[in-house]
Amino acid sequence: MANGTAPSAAGAKAALPRPHRSRMRRRSPAFWFLIPAILALAVIGIYPLLLALYNSFHQYKLADLASGTPFIGLDNYIATLTDPSFWGALGRTALFLCLTLPIEVALGLFAALMLHRTALPWMRAAARVSLVIPMATTYAVVGLIGRLIFNRQFGVANYLTGLLGIPPQDWLADPTLAFVSVMIMDIWQWTPFCALIMLAGLAMVPKEAEEAARLETPKWSKILWHLQRPYLLPGLTAILILRSADMLKMFDAVFTMTRGGPGTATEFISIYIQRVGFRLFDQGMASAQAVLLLILTIVLSRLYIRFVYREAA
Questions:
Q1: FRET label pair with 147: which of 37, 40, 117, 196, CA 20 to 30 Å apart?
Q2: Where is this region: Disordered (predicted)?
Q3: Full-prediction pTM beyond 0.90?
Q4: Distances in whole angstroms, Cα of residue 281 to Cα of each of 61, 62, 246
Q5: How far is CA 95 from each of CA 89, 177, 228, 266, rounded to the nearest angstrom?
Q6: pLDDT band at 12 (very low <50, low <70, confident <90, very high)
């Protein structure tokens, strides 16, 4: 009897791993499909971040590679935090963000409300297609368009201001006007993005509740604040996070349009980091500045989530 039960126990033990092996076979195709994305993330995102973090603690000057890359600890960070040029570039970037982002959000909300209230489906579809065009334009092309629009001799900006009796302005040579010109081009490109996100939030509002609110009060401001606002806040959080991160690292459009000038009027923090890294050839200092910029972006994102998204939740 003992001899009869032994083979059955052994057979049961041998059969136990089979479901586990079948589950592994079912999961293995998904794992293999994920490998290219994991490798791309590691090569494009994780490795450069780790390399920048490593360089930020070393003296790494491209013009003096013969002296090696000795470890210098926090010297690059201390030099960055005591550099007036770094704080000047960061201040210009913060001013650009504080002036441009509210305008983009306000204009995007206005466009979304207008499209949401229209009863013509074809007009709404045509507007959505037209809103995608500025977003699909690359940053370098936006900078080139800006150089043409604000050209003193044949730019459209001077033609339009001339209709109002204003004499021609040298937009890209005046520090204030160059800053305003970069703002205008960024607003033109990214207001449609804000509008589409806001329109998606408005589409989530229940139609029955919206119709009942319109019957109760004709004031659109009350409907917006009490009914539509909770549905807009998640999208608004995404806009704030994405646009703030984008403005902190914007380089192509500004560099193509003004080269950071005149003087340092449009030398934002990303352009300053590029100048330190590839014109002064100090990769260690530039890496430390990039790491500090990443920390600032993370802090801003956490603040947006805490004060904007939490209110929506």
A1: 196
A2: 1-21
A3: no
A4: 6, 5, 25
A5: 10, 14, 30, 11
A6: very low
